[in-house]
Structure formats: C-alpha cells, structure tokens
Amino acid sequence: MAAHARPPTTLHLATDTATEFTESMSTLASGVVLVTSRVAGRPWGMTVTAFASVSADPPTVLVSLGADTVGAGAIGASGVFGVSVLARAQVCVAEYAAAPGAPKFLDELVEPREVDSPSPAIADALAHLDCDVVDAVDAGDHVVFFGRVRRARRGFGRDPLLYHDRDYSALGPTTERNLRCLAS
Q1: CA distance 78 to 72
Q2: Is 48 domain-assigned?
Q3: Which of 56, 74, 58 is nearest to 66 (CA)?
Q4: 85 pLDDT band (50/70/90 cuts)?
Q5: Contact yes or no for 100/93 (Cβ under 8 A)
C-alpha cells in the first residue's frame, strides 16, 4: 500500500434509512450561517448549514428551514430574510441560535446600524446577505426558501466557522502535502 493511501474503512449501515441518511450527511463539512428575520418586531435568527448559492446572475441563494419553525413562519409572512456567514470565533452565536425550542432573539448580537433592518445582520459576521423571497418549496418536513440577494456585504480577515460530524470546527493549516497536490 502506498504511504499516502488510507486503509479501506467499513461503512456500518444503520437499520433505518433516515438514520443512515443523517449519519452519512454528518460527514459533509458545511459553513455555518444564521438565517435572520423579525419576530414580533425583534431580530430573530436560526443556525443553519443547509445554505447554498444558486445563481450569480441574478444573485440567488437558498436556505432550508424546518417548516414548523418560528423563523420559517416569519420569513414566509414577511417575504424577506438575511444570511449572516459566521466566523470561527462565533461558536457561541451558532450554539445560541441552534438551541431546539428556545427563543432565538438576537437583540444583543445584531450590528447596531442594522437593528431595524428587515433582515438583521450579525455583528462581526464574515458576510451578510439581504434577500427577498422569490420562491418557497415544501420539501418533506422542511421548506426551501429561494432568495434574490438585494444587498451583500463582506467582512475581512477571519476564518469561517464550519460544522462537521455534529461539531463546530475551523479550517486547518495548509500542509505540504496539500500544496504538492495543488501543484500536480
């Protein structure tokens, strides 16, 4: 076996398809975002990893939220949402907005100049997108919102927060081996 090859691993399949799916999806590293809206006039947000860019022209993204969540209801009613891309140092923010069943008001976490925005921006986030809902698709127990980005702004100089194998993580250093692979 070559020095860089890994020994084969055995994938242990669960007895239940939903469990198999959940276990398999936990192997995918994802960026962590807060999807923001307003609930009772206050900034509200939910931690999400099911977020993607759909199109650059026109700029469009998608987010997938539990259909019965407060955030999904607020977004469906208002037709707007925000997406704040979290930085490595914002694990506490991600955990706060991920707590099942807990209120997720963000009054203390929002950029002061964004306090009245329809899609509040999280202070010190790597980026924030203000979006208008252009479509919503029911998908099982979730709803997928497609949002046309009407404003985007980026912060600088920090690493992104990642979620992998049910835990928060960050990018590691680029190794010599990684650099050799890129040169090939």
Answers
A1: 10
A2: yes
A3: 74
A4: very high
A5: no
- What is the reported pTM? 0.80
- Rounded CA-CA distance 70/74 in Å is 6
Residue 127 resides in a domain? yes
The mean of the pLDDT values for the chain is 83
What is the average pLDDT across 150-175? 75
Instruction: Tell how far CA 109 is from the center of its chain.
Output: 17
Summarize the confidence of residues 98-116 as an average pLDDT.
Answer: 86
The reply to whether 25 falls in a domain is: no
- The strand order across the sheet containing 161-164 reads 30-31, 161-164, 167-170
In a domain, 168, yes or no: no
Instruction: Tell me the C-alpha to C-alpha distance, in Å, between residue 157 and each of 35, 42, 127.
Output: 22, 30, 11
- Cα–Cα nearest to 139, from 56, 43, 72, 78: 72
